[in-house]
Amino acid sequence: MGMDRETQLRAIGNGQIEWLNIGVNVLCDPFVRLPIRFILRGRWHEVEQIIEIARDDMDTNAETFLIRTGTGQVFALCRRSNLVKAGCWWWIAFRVLNSEEVICFERRNRQMLIDLELKMLADAHGHLCPDLAIGWRVGLVARKVFGGNDDGNILAGCLSCASEAIAAMGSWNLKIDALMGRHFYRLEALGAGCVELEVPDELTWPDGNFAGLERQVSENKASILEIAAYQIQIDDQISRILGATDQELFFSK
């Protein structure tokens, strides 16, 4: 589910949507009050999956449900709760274009092209993030340092997606030492010394309004469009990490 969520957010962030702003009738689950089906243009649509829930862009008293229907279409279904007696007002804000409809867009705007091993790590982990990409790059260096075998020790500065990627790439001995620093790694080849790697701050913390968006998302105060913008910034950061040379990505000691 995680990777599919990111795909939809990337599409929204890249403007691959059809704005509708159409009022709809919605049937909700009576216990949890989540939408289960709705009528759009005279036809019932079953809500197969709720991908994301966020506040509405224009109305802080409203909610947006990014949902997938039984036919595979993805909509932003919005609800504004009024007084109890007045009930709710529902509308479809937009529909996310499917892959056939965005054929005219550059393919890099729809999905990132990544190494097969990294894709497998992301699939197993549930999502692709900057830390996972860094861990994969550390694992590649470790294979060179250890001469193609796993007889070595890796000391990582924190327990994160990076350390999970490293652990999955080999049977080497991985330990965590939080005093070393978040993205500091020591690779110790048995009987052959060690290599220390540190990732510079500019490659671990994006520029711009990333911190503000991250805070909004973590506090569940972000809109769907803000969450999509946050995903695009994450993708840009991953692209920088994957596109950097070993010399650019790591301070080697």
Provide a descriptive summary of the structure in words.
The chain is α+β, with helices and mostly antiparallel strands and 253 residues long. The chain has two domains: 2-107; 116-252, 60s Ribosomal Protein L30, Chain: A (2-Layer Sandwich). The protein has seven helices and twelve strands. The strands form two sheets. It has a seven-stranded antiparallel beta sheet. Strand 3 and strand 4 form a beta hairpin. Helix 1 (2-13) packs across helix 6 (224-243) and helix 3 packs parallel to helix 6. The longest helix has 20 residues, at 224-243. Mean pLDDT is 82; it is low at 103-112.
Following the backbone from N to C, one meets helices and strands in this order, namely HEEEEEEEHHEHEEEHHHE
Level of helix content? Answer: 25-40%
**Broad CATH class of the largest domain:** Alpha Beta
**Approximately what portion of the residues adopt beta-strand conformation?**
25-35%
Cα end-to-end separation: 40 Å
Looking across the biggest beta sheet, what order are the strands in? 1-7-6-5-4-3-2
Q: What class, by secondary structure content?
A: alpha+beta
Beta strands, count: 12
